Automatic annotation (TrEMBL):
<dbReference type="GO" id="GO:0016787">
    <property type="term" value="F:hydrolase activity"/>
</dbReference>
<protein>
    <recommendedName>
        <fullName>Queuosine 5'-phosphate N-glycosylase/hydrolase</fullName>
        <ecNumber>3.2.2.-</ecNumber>
    </recommendedName>
</protein>
<comment type="function">
    <text>Catalyzes the hydrolysis of queuosine 5'-phosphate, releasing the nucleobase queuine (q). Is required for salvage of queuine from exogenous queuosine (Q) that is imported and then converted to queuosine 5'-phosphate intracellularly.</text>
</comment>
<dbReference type="InterPro" id="IPR019438">
    <property type="entry name" value="Q_salvage"/>
</dbReference>
<dbReference type="Pfam" id="PF10343">
    <property type="entry name" value="Q_salvage"/>
</dbReference>
<keyword id="KW-0378">Hydrolase</keyword>
<dbReference type="GO" id="GO:0006400">
    <property type="term" value="P:tRNA modification"/>
</dbReference>
<comment type="similarity">
    <text>Belongs to the QNG1 protein family.</text>
</comment>
Length: 306
């Protein structure tokens, strides 16, 4: 996504709370000799997959709700992915567009087999309704039709998603400029690509245009690697689990600098080792390292975007 890449670079060039350390990027690239460890999509074995349109519906609903797990220390992305999978296996109509429009908070909890209110539950329910309503209105109720309408272009699919579904418009303002981060829209494309192995609903001729998905795990891994450096106030807030205000300079810098740093890493691997990597592959490697490191402290922002 050119808009994501360009606005992330714009923020990184003016950033004051977060710095991208280019020398550390070079050290990491040299250490791995340009070979990013290959991590299989669904390495956890938690996602629904039947090689057809229901998988697309599942992934779209999954990514509509793929945000903010940390306020409940026992909840993680795995619960969402496997909860929706089990729900679909029990009832193939559970994610039909007309059903999505009617879920209540307690019903969503029941669907996910989660015993207490989910973080920002009212927003999760509202976003489910939005997805159901717009799928029905513009795409015959099926996320598969949304994907078909993009004609195998990742950039077009992201444009369609953000045009039709306001909940996916992951924008921010930074020093008066609009910054595009599009975490959940991009991750949906990556999930299609990974699940369908670049075929069928997962075939995109411009998959290399996707950046990493600026969540709260990847920045923490980049910081641990020494690639992102935080100023002392920000470091202190993160290490003491103080919340970072959504839309604050700190929050936008953390997310944008993460995107920028990985794009720099990708460029350097290409220049030094002649390898053309996808940001998606670097993301999955970094993210999988992050979720396996329980001691990692990450920034905490209440947000529907990630
Ligand atoms: N950058 C990036 N962020 C990702 C994912 C994924 C899952 N991707 C699936 C695709 C294939 C794999 O097999 C994965 O299962 C979730 N997240 C984010 O992490 C956070 C959740 O963390 P915790 O609270 O510890 O569960 C939350 O912001 C969530 O939105 C990713 O791939 N990249």
């Amino acid at each position: 996504m050119e808009a994501v890449r360009a606005s992330a670079a714009w923020v990184a060039s003016r950033s004051s709370h977060v710095t991208v350390d280019l020398q550390e990027i070079e050290k990491v690239v040299d250490k791995i000799q340009g070979n990013v460890p290959k991590v299989e999509w669904d390495f956890e074995g938690i996602h629904y997959f039947d090689n057809g349109p229901l998988t697309v519906q599942y992934l779209f609903v999954l990514d509509a709700l793929n945000f903010c797990f940390w306020p409940d220390k026992d909840l993680s992305y795995d619960h969402l992915a496997s909860g929706l999978k089990l729900a679909l296996e029990k009832d193939k109509t559970a994610l039909d567009a007309n059903r999505l429009q009617n879920y209540t908070g307690p019903e969503l909890r029941q669907l996910l087999n989660w015993p207490r209110p989910l973080p920002i539950e009212e927003e999760r329910v509202r976003l489910l309704h939005e997805v159901g309503l717009e799928l029905e209105r513009s795409f015959g109720g099926e996320a598969a039709n949304l994907v078909k309408a993009a004609g195998n272009s990742a950039a077009t699919l992201i444009e369609l998603i953000t045009r039709h579904f306001p909940g996916f418009r992951d924008h921010s303002l930074y020093k008066g400029h609009q910054v595009f981060l599009y975490k959940r829209a991009q991750i949906f494309v990556a999930d299609l690509w990974g699940a369908f192995k670049g075929q069928n609903y997962g075939e995109f001729h411009d998959i290399n245009s996707i950046t990493i998905f600026a969540d709260y795990i990847v920045p923490a891994v980049l910081r641990e690697l020494g690639i992102l450096k935080y100023g002392s106030n920000l470091s202190c807030s993160i290490d003491s689990n103080r919340e970072i205000v959504p839309g604050s300079e700190e929050e936008v810098e953390i997310r944008a600098c993460s995107i920028y740093a990985v794009e720099k890493m990708r460029d350097l691997i290409s220049k030094k080792f002649g390898k053309q990597l996808l940001s998606i592959d670097i993301d999955l490697w970094l993210w999988s390292c992050g979720v396996q490191n329980m001691a990692l402290s990450h920034h905490r922002t209440l947000s529907i975007y990630y």
